[in-house]
Amino acid sequence: MTLSQKISRLLGQAIARKEKLERQLYLAAAISGGFEERGVRAVLVGGTVVEFYTAGGYTTADIDMVLPPLERKEIETVMEALGFVRSGDYRHWSHPQIPFPVEFPPGPLQIGHLVVVDLNEIEIEGMKLKILKVEDILLDRIVMAQEWDDLQAQVQAEMLMYAHYDEMDWPYVHRQASQIGVLKILQEIQKKVKRRDQKALLIEPTKEWGGEKKAESPSSC
Asked: Which domains does the chain have, with CATH numbers?
């Protein structure tokens, strides 16, 4: 199957499937493939990544993807070929058959002032979709919680910790948090999570789809 055929299939699945997170991930994979055809890396960020790592414990309506610096026409060419129409400026798009708006926040890809280097990949029907690592989306939510006094972002950070506490690279998280000035709030949230009864907040394992699991079940703190 050619890359163009994969993209067409992914887009068709994003239209046809019923489960919201699956549709969002198929759509993000199709968009990623559209840019890959032009040698451009697209990375899924934001609330959809939180939703993925919490297996739907948190939910969001839109899709955010970060691109390298591109001319407006390059973005328009890819998105219009996928059937999207602009919603305002060239960074905001919608699809007539898919109810999830797509936004391309300005780059570079970074948490605070630190550029993100390593990424996670999930494979969706042969297409590799690049997303933030769980450690970096956690840091992203903590930055939002501190800088914007965003309680919802703090709740998302707690959910991410609950779901992935034992597998988290804590030395990396603490080091990055110290550099971007959010170590204190990180440690406060971490202590709160460790005090809570995690058993009451376990996220059940989700079914496999497209050859991949949407998220691993959490392990005990």
From this structure: 3-213 (3.30.460)
Tracing tokens 């939703």 back to the chain, one arrives at 51
Beta bridge partners of 157: none
The whole-angstrom separation of Cα 85 and Cα 99 is 13
Q: How far apart are CA 158 and CA 16, in angstroms?
A: 33
Residue with tokens 């956690």: 138
Evaluated on CA atoms 20, 21, 27, 28, the torsion sign reads positive
Please list, in sequence order, all residues whose beta carbon lies within 8 angstroms of the beta carbon of residue 122, skipping any fewer than 6 positions away: 25, 52, 128, 129, 131, 212
Does 208 score more than 80 pLDDT? no
Give how far Cα 7 sits from Cα of 13, 46, 105, 167, Å.
Answer: 10, 22, 22, 32
Dump pLDDT digits (tens) for 46-94: 999 999 999 999 999 999 999 999 999 999 999 999 999 999 899 999 9
